[in-house]
Design brief:
Blueprint lengths: L3 H9 L4 E5 L3 H9 L4 E4 L3 H4 L11 H14 L4 E5 L12 H10 L4 E5 L4 H10 L4 E6 L15 H16 L4 E5 L3 H10 L4 E4 L7 E4 L1 H4 L17 H17 L14 H11 L1
Parallel strand pairs: 1-2, 1-8, 2-3, 3-4, 4-5, 5-6, 6-7, 7-8
Helix pairs in contact: 2-4, 6-7, 7-8
The protein binds 3-methyl-2-oxobutanoic acid.
3-methyl-2-oxobutanoic acid binds next to strand 6.
């Protein structure tokens, strides 16, 4: 099982860190078997699994349930659970207790998105002995829109400062979402801890994608930065349509998928029902 030191060491060894989201046992098992370094139980759960509009619509109840499922599958991958909005942004004093609950559910670290009191909240969680991954740039829990951030020098400076503040607070890595690659390159150079990019270009120490985007399982929208490595949606549709046709036409279940009563038991049953 990977630990924080292994992940941080990958930066100095120049070994890029692979991160994907997962929300359930079967997908997390595939990620673990494929050797993905970090499985993130993202609050993107809201959009790609629960059909909700905003990540702020998932709470601790959902995150605990899905973190447990993912953790049961992870034999080697390091599991990070997203702290949902309600867990730390409404009342910072709840943050440590909520982070502890996610750890008890099986996470090995938690992730928090940048907001006004983020550095203080991060250092309180770190002081409680819980590893924290920071997240700057586009932070969907509080963003006004889903556009690229840090597009001019002053706002780039602000995002760089946020990343540095999170490192200072003790975060063991920082996610950079949807920022120009030049800005991500500066942050990656200035930080001792690894940066994990999503829509932040090739210079980060690692990359993360939402697994439903990678597998073609979510068709509501496809962000420019994500890449579809498989298109499973049409294959699922085809399988379900074939099942429907075979049931409708009486083709399924056939003998190969059915059970038989032994002939002498059939005789006995007949005597019981006649
Ligand atoms: O919730 C999520 O999936 C995330 C990633 C996009 C980094 O936070």
């Amino acid at each position: 099982m990977k630990n924080v030191a292994d992940i941080v060491a990958q930066k100095s060894k120049g070994r890029r860190i692979t991160v994907l989201t997962a929300y359930d046992y079967p997908i997390a098992s595939f990620l673990d078997e494929a050797g993905i370094d970090i499985i993130l139980v993202g609050d993107s759960l809201a959009n790609v699994v629960l059909g909700l509009k905003s990540t702020t619509e998932v709470g601790m109840k959902e995150m605990l349930y899905h973190t447990g499922a993912v953790a049961r599958a992870a034999k080697n991958s390091f599991v990070v659970a997203d702290m949902p909005f309600e867990a730390y942004q409404l009342e910072g004093r709840l943050a440590v207790g909520n982070a502890q609950q996610l750890m008890e559910a099986g996470a090995k670290a938690v992730k928090i998105e940048w907001f006004e009191d983020c550095a203080d909240v991060a250092s309180a969680i770190v002081r409680a002995g819980i590893p924290v991954m920071g997240h700057v740039g586009l932070t969907p829990q509080t963003a006004q829109d889903m556009k690229v951030k840090a597009k001019d020098a002053p706002s780039a400076r602000a995002v760089i400062d946020q990343a540095l503040a999170l490192e200072e607070s003790g975060c063991f890595s920082v996610v950079l979402e949807c920022i120009p690659q030049e800005v991500a390159e500066v942050i990656t150079r200035q930080l001792k801890v690894p940066t994990i990019g999503i829509g932040a270009g090739p210079h980060c120490d690692g990359q993360v994608l939402v697994v439903h985007d990678l597998l073609g399982l979510f068709s509501r929208y496809q962000p420019k930065f994500s890449k579809k490595y498989a298109d499973l949606g049409p294959r699922i549709l085809e399988a379900v349509r074939t099942y429907k046709k075979e049931v409708t036409e009486g083709v399924f279940p056939d003998d190969a998928h059915s059970f038989h009563l032994p002939p002498d038991e059939i005789k006995k049953l007949r005597s019981l029902i006649e």
